[in-house]
Design goal:
This protein is mainly alpha-helical and about 70 residues long. It has a single domain, classed as Orthogonal Bundle (Helix Hairpins). It is about 75% helix and about 0% strand. The protein contains three helices and no strands. The chain starts with 5 loop residues before the first helix and ends with a helix.
């Protein structure tokens, strides 16, 4: 999964943004499941990157609503 910058997210249309948000949320669930089960994630910083990208997407969605 690609980690997006805010400028890249702003260049997407609403459908693409919603699709990427769903993919990222599923990745986040999978990564959290690995950690919860007691396993070590493949890339420890990945969970933080996913969380930050989700926040960026939601910020852009809120900006577009205004």
């Amino acid at each position: 999964m690609v980690i997006f910058k805010a400028s890249e997210i702003r260049n997407m249309n609403d459908g693409e943004i919603a699709e990427e948000l769903i993919k990222l949320e599923l990745d986040q669930i999978r990564e959290r499941g690995i950690v919860t089960a007691g396993g070590a994630p493949e890339k420890p910083g990945r969970l933080r990157d996913i969380r930050r990208t989700i926040a960026r997407i939601k910020t852009v969605q809120t900006e577009r609503k205004k």
